[in-house]
Amino acid sequence: MTANGLRTFLLLAGMTALFMAIGYVLGGAAGAMIALVIAGGMNLFAWWNSADMVLRMHGAREIGPDERHPQLRQYAADVEHLARRAGLPVPRVFVIESDQPNAFATGRDPGHAAVAATTGLIARLDREEVQGVMAHELAHVKNRDTLTMTVTATLAGAIGMLANFALFFGGNNRAGLIGSIALMIFAPMAAMLVQSAISRAREYEADRIGAEIMGKPMALASALEKIERTARRTINDSAERNPATAHMFIINPLNGQRMDNLFSTHPDTANRIARLREMAGAAAPVRSGPWAPRGPWG
Q: N or C: which end of the chain has fewer CB within 10 A?
């Protein structure tokens, strides 16, 4: 099993075990078995419907051949070009109405993938920066991260709902009212711990492969810097309504966490930029001085 496959197995096993544990607290052994069946059903549903489900959550609109907006046509054409460079089937391309610059990829496999960017991303970033972001998202598709990320979002959301459900039946379950309150608080936190432990590694890897697909690490580095700066002061309404999908975005759409702590679904952006700069330096060292050549690494 590859390292990526092992991380995927551990993530899904951990989320499913947590789901079963909540079921056990609510209904004993029978509750745990029911939770296992529900988790299996949700995973199958997410397998077949992951792309459309997440895209609907965020009100995404598909860009078709009759698109009139020139920037959106260019964005879709660039995604097609990058997909071919990466040796991938061309994914469906979507746009989300949001001033916050951000993007994500979804789908059960490269043949059924979709990428989505916000209107804020397309408007605030230059063309090369948008290409860098979309190359990062195509790297998630190439690594087959998209299914795992979507299933994780489904299970994380269900764990939160099940924990809240436990509060309303606090006096009737094995934990009692106090235990139910504790479950409501700590179960979503535990889900985030399991989720974020894997997500951060995936983001670093997608940054690396995305930079290789495009061939310009500094384009992605510049994009990340702009997105981080702007996203912190711009609300993403659809992400706020669906916080379990936050780990799917290239930058956390919910808050301004600044370090790789246990509860962050994304690595610190400064760390990601530093790694990309190292890639750019290794690929094309730049001489200092007033006559230094100006190249793609800037």
A: N
- The answer to whether the beta carbons of residues 88 and 138 sit under 8 Å apart is yes
**Is residue 163 scored above 90 in pLDDT?**
no
Active site residue 225: no
Hey, is 95 helix, strand or coil?
Answer: strand
> Crossing angle of helices 3-57/176-214, nearest 10°?
100
Task: Give the count of alpha carbons within 13 A of 195, CB side only.
Answer: 27
> Is 252:246 a contact under the CB 8 Å cutoff?
yes
For residue 60, count CB atoms less than 10 angstroms from its CB and return exposed for 0-12, middle for 13-18, buried for 19 or more. Answer: buried
The answer to whether residue 180 scores a pLDDT higher than 50 is yes
Structure-token pair, residue 250: 């290239």
Which stretch of DSSP H or E encloses residue 221?
helix 217-231
Catalytic position from the list 137, 205, 228, 278: 137
The pTM of the full predicted model, rounded to 2 decimals, is 0.76
Position 298 pLDDT exceeds 60? no
> With 50 as the cut, is the pLDDT of residue 263 above it?
no
